[in-house]
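stage 2 :: seqdesign
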């Protein structure tokens, strides 16, 4: 993961049972198979401007014979990967700055081209 996002969460009022809006929780690291912490913050860290995107494949997310492709674009990348370069079926994610200070970004899923 390249952004510090955790699972979706919702607030529930314990007195009324009212369910609030869903939101992403923060997760600044995950634990790998060896039990070591791995940072989830590379794409908000200017140190990683040399990384254009992360590509992933997940067999467990498809019943088809082909592997689904997931692409997360680095908004700080010095050289960007073009959208759609891995095919029309790739699920692509990118971030856009919110406001003028560059301190907050909104993660968006690119609409499918297929």
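stage 2 :: out
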């Amino acid at each position: 993961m390249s952004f510090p996002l955790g699972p979706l969460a919702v607030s529930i009022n314990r007195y009324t049972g009212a369910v609030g809006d869903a939101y992403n929780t923060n997760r600044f690291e995950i634990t790998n198979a060896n039990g070591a912490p791995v940072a989830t913050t590379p794409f908000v860290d200017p140190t990683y401007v040399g990384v254009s995107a992360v590509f992933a494949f997940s067999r467990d997310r498809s019943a088809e014979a082909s592997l689904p492709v997931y692409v997360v674009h680095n908004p700080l990348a010095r050289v960007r990967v073009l959208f759609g370069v891995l095919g029309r079926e790739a699920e692509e994610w990118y971030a856009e700055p919110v406001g003028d200070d560059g301190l907050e970004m909104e993660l968006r899923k690119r609409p499918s081209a297929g």
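stage 3 :: structure notes
- The first strand starts at residue 5 and ends at 12.
- Residues 5-109 form one domain.
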